[in-house]
Amino acid sequence: MDAGKKKINDILNGNRQLIIPFFQRSYVWEKDLWERFLESMEQVSQKGKEYFLGSVILKQMPTSTSSTVGDVRTVIDGQQRLTTLALFLKVLCFKTGKKRKFENMFILDEDKFAIVHNMFDKAIFDTIIAQEELVPVFSESKLAKAYDYFLQNVNVERLNLETILAHISFVGIDLNNEDDEQVIFDTINSIGVTLTTGELLKNYLFSQDTIHTYNSKWKSVFEADEDTLKYWDSNVTQGRKIRKNLETFLNAYLHIKINDPAYGFDSVKKERFNRTEDLFSQYKDFISMTGIDTNSLVDNLTEYARIYRLYLSSRILNEEIPAEYGLDRLNLIVFGLDATTLIPYLLYVLKNQSDQNEVNKIARILESYLMRRLVCKRSTNNYSDLFSQSLIGARFLTALSLQEYLESKENDSSLAMPGDEEMIYAFEDNVLLDVRAKGVLYLLESKIRSPRHSTALRSFNSYTLEHLMPKKWNPTTWPISDSSQIELRNLKLKTLGNLALLTQSLNSSISNNSWNIKLNGNGRKKGLKEYASGLDTMTYVLSQTDWDESKIDTRADWLFDNARTIWNFNDVEFEASSHEIHESDGNAITVGGTGVTGTTDTVSSTEAGQKKINSNNDRTKFSLDNGQTYLSKNRFVLEGIRLYINRHPQKTLAELKSVFKDSLLKQFKRLGFLCSEADLKRPLTRGRKPTDAEISRWYFLEKSAWMTSGDKIRFVVSTQITLNSANAVRAILEAEGIDVKTTE
Questions:
Q1: Which residues are CB-contacts of 406 (< 8 A; sequence separation ≥ 6)?
Q2: By the 8 A CB rule, do 559 and 572 touch?
Q3: What count of Cα atoms within 13 Å lies in the side-chain half-sphere of residue 520?
Q4: How far apart are CA 371 and CA 568, in angstroms?
Q5: Could you tell me which residues come within 8 angstroms of residue 337 by beta carbon, excluding any fewer than 6 positions away?
Q6: How far is it, in rounded angstroms, from Cα 282 to Cα 289?
Q7: Are the CB atoms for 199 and 252 separated by under 8 Å?
Q8: What's the alpha-carbon Rg for the chain, to the nearest Å?
Q9: Are strands 51-61 and 168-175 parallel, antiparallel or unpaired?
Q10: This prediction's pTM
Q11: Which residue among 456, 504, 511, 744 has the highest number of C-beta atoms inside a 10 angstrom radius?
Q12: Mapped to the 3 state alphabet, what secondary structure does 184-239 carry?
């Protein structure tokens, strides 16, 4: 690289041809810049002071020995200034009778032009340069309008050609073949608008000699019409960065290629491609390292691009999302919840898996995996390696192979799929960013609501997020009985149980008011019942006469109870018409498009008072008296353990815990399956002590439920029972000779 001050005659020396890349952007200067340029030329003419016209970056190109042009250079930077200067000098030279001066600079041997313009402006620019007399060029092109401006406004009495040629300077940078023009260009133009990867790649792959290939392949996919251009130019949020759709696609495609086993890239070679910056140079490296035929690359790249545009788009954010697992739901996660690292693998699957049913199964697994990790605030640092290197590299194209691979990460904390125990803690305690919390609630709502719902689900972007108990709560309107619980309240009000989807933001005077006003409005401003009507995730909320930490936890647990079934690898249909939130009054709030009703199940008020966290589609009941009375899973486990203790009154608590192990709870270990009175206040896994409200949901605490072991220790039994837990207890009882019957 050689850099220094250059005069006009150093750049346009009569034997040098400057080639503006054929696919470079068209001329864009407008009247304000033409005016400033002309004023500057007049000042130079009158004052004779040196004037810097900016930078010009030229890259040396190979020339043929038979060529009459000895020096050919590509214009990396300076197109706009050189074009403007050429138009201005054409007018000034011809108006001052110095036509030969202009031709010496701009017309070479064999009538070749010193500046060869891009495809957009070449015809008009060539027409102007070749004119024997100054005449306007009628066109909507900005280049033609610039020429017309100078025709009308160049005043030869205020301008001096020789002074201008002697005093106009550039910062000239000459590059050789080894210099990286893009790095230099971006550095110099860091404040302005730099060329995109798509534009650079297009210039690299095509030339005037391959215009047919460009038109038939590249243009038809990326530049066919205004809608196509708008699509590829739309923004995609990637973490803290915003990239164009085309850049996002090109990055994804490159990662598909470098992880294709056919190219045999090892980890060292792949490391070169892990940066999101300098994407164009990475493409050049890939082409150089693989020796891939550029025509084959263009064929494959444009084929992937068609698939990308057909199936991957943020438009779903403005449309109603379907309840069925599939690409629409994944698009919402990718573009709405910033999971763009998934794109390479998803694009790879769409290209190579033709079975749509299999694609939908893969979509379910990916949604479950991503949403569980999002709720649990698991790190996304290793997602790029997972969704590119691991999944593409091993060619996972079936749901079963993908599931088995992700399940194998169980002991890998960085990539493991969180279990139900971690999920329920997350729903109760985690604070998510607003858009992520909104995504969780929206995706749950779309699955929970009945297909016969009278109110259509709106698009993701149509909803706003509201804190039910306000973040800035007032103790007068939101009383708290125990001031020591303020810290817990401030945590709970930011969690999912306290967040609501609304069709419109509440007025601040309503949002921060008492629960009754927030719920019903004040007559002039509407409340929750107006803007949350028809949302099944809000049915329980809208039925409450007050709202506190206990209600927040109850709703959080209900949301979790649905989420653990919806976001699960197992192929189990979700029943959206019979979800219940049990409260201490013995009634159940039924959610699923059917309103708020009392339950008709025959259960004791104590059992109904315990928060059930069970499978949404399981209604199995158990009998210990030969079918005379059937009990729910929770009650069956409680009475079954009591029956076992009556047969073994001498067993210590430790011995009982060795029979009824904590592992029987599967993902709900909490403080243990059997929990002593002393252990009820034992800190949870995160060091926080459980609240009374939490303990009352997790264990049978009524007086008759307490039991005593052979070593005189009082203990209680967990209510966090799954069907698997109940069947495990059933097996223990049947081994004792106790007959257990079941019914659906």
A1: 365, 369, 415, 417, 569
A2: no
A3: 9
A4: 10
A5: 370, 374, 435, 436, 439
A6: 10
A7: no
A8: 36
A9: parallel
A10: 0.69
A11: 511
A12: HHHHHCCCCCCCCHHHHHHHHHCCHHHHHHHHHHHHHHHCCCHHHHHHHHCEEEEC
Q: Are 488 and 692 in contact (CB under 8 A)?
A: no
Q: How far from chain centre, in Å, is Cα 130?
A: 52
Residue range 411-439, pLDDT digits in tens: 677 899 988 878 888 898 889 888 999 99
Whether the Cβ atoms of residue 75 and residue 22 lie closer than 8 Å to each other: no
Angle between helices 245-258 and 197-205 (to 10 degrees): 60
Residue 720 token pair: 């966090």
For 127-178, the DSSP string reads HHHH-SS------S-HHHHHHHHHHHH--TTS--HHHHHHHEEEEEEEE-TT
Could you read off the pLDDT of 571-587 as tens digits, one per residue?
Answer: 544 444 334 454 433 34
Cβ within 8 Å of residue 231, ≥6 positions away: 245, 309, 313
Q: What are phi and psi of 680, to 5 degrees?
A: -60, -25
Q: How far apart are CA 551 and CA 70, in angstroms?
A: 83
Short-list 81, 60, 75, CA closest to 23: 75
Over residues 298-310, the mean pLDDT reads 95
Contacts of 236 (CB under 8 A, 6+ apart): 242, 243, 244, 245, 248, 314, 335, 340
